[in-house]
Design brief:
Number of helices: 1
Distance between the termini: 54 Å
Length: about 140
């Protein structure tokens, strides 16, 4: 009986090791982040966070601060810049479903802005955080 119990415990341990040793992201399913700097006078660590998920080419633009500014996600693909505004306020996320060739290199960046009717009108350039240039679709 003890031998059977030990065998069951050993088998359970092997199953658990097998389950916990898998990578957090399967190959080709990476998630890349970038954050903005806070706006002047803000008590937040940052005002926007963007997340590009390679599987499905999903780009999330998160407004993380109630500072009165919009969150702006920027993508640079082959020297072309695309701006995705989240106007919906603090605690919201704009989800953008994109299409890129598999393996396409990109760069992402998070900024804040006050919409003025054009893609870059009203951008608060001083809030644009570090560029994450190690992104692959």
């Amino acid at each position: 009986m003890r031998l059977a119990a030990r065998a069951a415990v050993a088998a359970s341990a092997l199953v658990l090791v097998g389950l916990t040793s898998a990578p957090a992201n399967a190959a080709g399913h990476e998630s890349y982040l970038a954050h903005s700097y806070p706006a002047d006078g803000s008590n937040c660590d940052n005002g926007a966070v963007v997340d590009f998920q390679s599987y499905g080419e999903i780009f999330d633009v998160n407004d993380t601060c109630g500072d009165g500014h919009s969150a702006v996600g920027v993508i640079n693909v082959a020297s072309s810049f695309y701006y995705y505004w989240n106007h919906d306020g603090h605690g919201t996320t704009r989800v953008v479903d994109l299409e890129f060739n598999e393996g396409q290199p990109l760069a992402i960046q998070a900024c804040l802005g006050d919409w003025k009717g054009t893609a870059t009108g009203g951008m608060l350039w001083s809030t644009c955080g570090p560029v994450n240039a190690n992104v692959t679709a």
